[in-house]
Amino acid sequence: ASYSRIAATDASIQAFLTLNEEGARAAAAEFDGALTAGGELGLLFGLPAGIKDNIVTEGLLTTCASQFLRNYDPIYSATVVKKLKSAQTVTIGKLNMDEFAMGGSNENSSFYPTRNPWNTDYVPGGSSGGSAASVAAGQVYFSLGSDTGGSIRQPAAYCGIVGLKPTYGLVSRYGLVAFASSLDQIGPLTKNVEDSAYVLQAIAGYDANDSTSANVDIPDYVSALTGDVKGLRIGVPKEYLGQGIDPKVKEAVIAALKQFESLGATWEEVSLPHTEYAVATYYLLASSEASSNLARFDGVRYGVRAENPDNLLELYRKSRSQGFGSEVKRRIMLGTYALSSGYYDAYYLKAQKVRTLIKQDFDNVFKDFDLIIGPTAPTPAFRIGEQVGDPLTMYLNDICTIPVSLAGIPAISVPCGFADGLPIGLQIIGKAFDERTVLRAAHAFE
Ligand code: GLN
């Protein structure tokens, strides 16, 4: 059913980069066989899943939507992929994204842009745009994405589905091609909150292969979905509903808060005073980490190698010039500059300090509140091509998701209405490792 749905819809959506039909049929037969032989039923038995193309899959191309890795056939699978296999999901294929997860519209894919299933003239968001569009179009039951500054939550909002960014360290990053290692997290994109809880259950947990993996007990997420939010205290940051927020988005968020009120929760305006510095801080830190992480793509170790270089330096230069797209080059240059001697203290070190202040803003609010709620993105999806020439405007779309990433805390985007036929997302933010409360509130609301 998944493949026939893809055949019927993907010419216009373009969510997939690689399909895995043979592998999927073999896996399905294997799980079936195991069950018939008296084996245990996997937590996600038989569910067709799509995987973002920056998560490595053994024997299945993993391109990061980059020309650099167009031939990269990994020799191992990411921890999350192994965990999904033991939960008995079937990998349908690999999903389109912004190159190396840098972007918020899918237009930075070096292959083709994915389109929003609600209106194919619009972007699906990004960078996990293929992951969001494939779930919204009913091609897969759920997908995995990665979120560094909003890349699960924002495309989920634009495509009218549920996207969860777990607490930093809850889900292993082993086998996720690194963009900004101190921010990257893998999470589920699903049609509803219950599915999100199930997929999180399957992928969360300590992994010795990831040095930043958190060694914490994994609670039962599904049992948190009680429908009861009575007495929950919600803080609503005034910075998330001010300048630059589309009035229709604001209206939808206020309506959602009223719904929480009618369910017995309370809400109050709060302040996260360093929000105005978050975008600048993020783009310095993420670009710095990216410039370091992407140094491994040198034409020698992975992917495509430039032809006929005169010498070694020329090999690096040519491979990188040919392999990376312009947004990736922009980030590498920005990051290299911010890390260079003489500028490090002024940019990188300063940004690290501001990151701490942003985290403290959240800590202060969470002394008195259980959750923070606001929009996921300032506007609904925009037209394909509308913002490509203007990276700064594109960066400002991340204003509501980036602070959460810098603080390392969990947040979910759930649909909360429409503006001109395009979905709007509500962002529910929780304390570190308190995914249960985040999921409970999201479930009671949806
Ligand atoms: N849009 C942000 C960026 O371009 C976030 C990307 C992400 O979360 N991977 O960096």
UniProtKB/TrEMBL annotation:
A Gene Ontology biological process term: translation
SUPFAM superfamilies the record matches: Amidase signature (AS) enzymes
Domain of life according to the entry: Bacteria
EC class name: ligase
GO CC, alphabetical: glutamyl-tRNA(Gln) amidotransferase complex
Chemical reaction(s) catalysed: L-glutamyl-tRNA(Gln) + L-glutamine + ATP + H2O = L-glutaminyl-tRNA(Gln) + L-glutamate + ADP + phosphate + H(+)
InterPro entries, alphabetized: Amidase, Amidase_CS, Amidase_dom, AS_sf, GatA
Molecular function GO terms recorded: ATP binding; glutaminyl-tRNA synthase (glutamine-hydrolyzing) activity; transferase activity
Enzyme Commission number(s): 6.3.5.7
Keywords on record: ATP-binding, Ligase, Nucleotide-binding, Protein biosynthesis, Transferase
NCBIfam families the UniProt entry points to: gatA (TIGR00132)
Family (UniProt): Belongs to the amidase family. GatA subfamily.
Cited function: Allows the formation of correctly charged Gln-tRNA(Gln) through the transamidation of misacylated Glu-tRNA(Gln) in organisms which lack glutaminyl-tRNA synthetase. The reaction takes place in the presence of glutamine and ATP through an activated gamma-phospho-Glu-tRNA(Gln).
Record text on subunit structure and interactions: Heterotrimer of A, B and C subunits.
Name used for this protein in its record: Glutamyl-tRNA(Gln) amidotransferase subunit A
Annotated organism of origin: Paenibacillus montanisoli
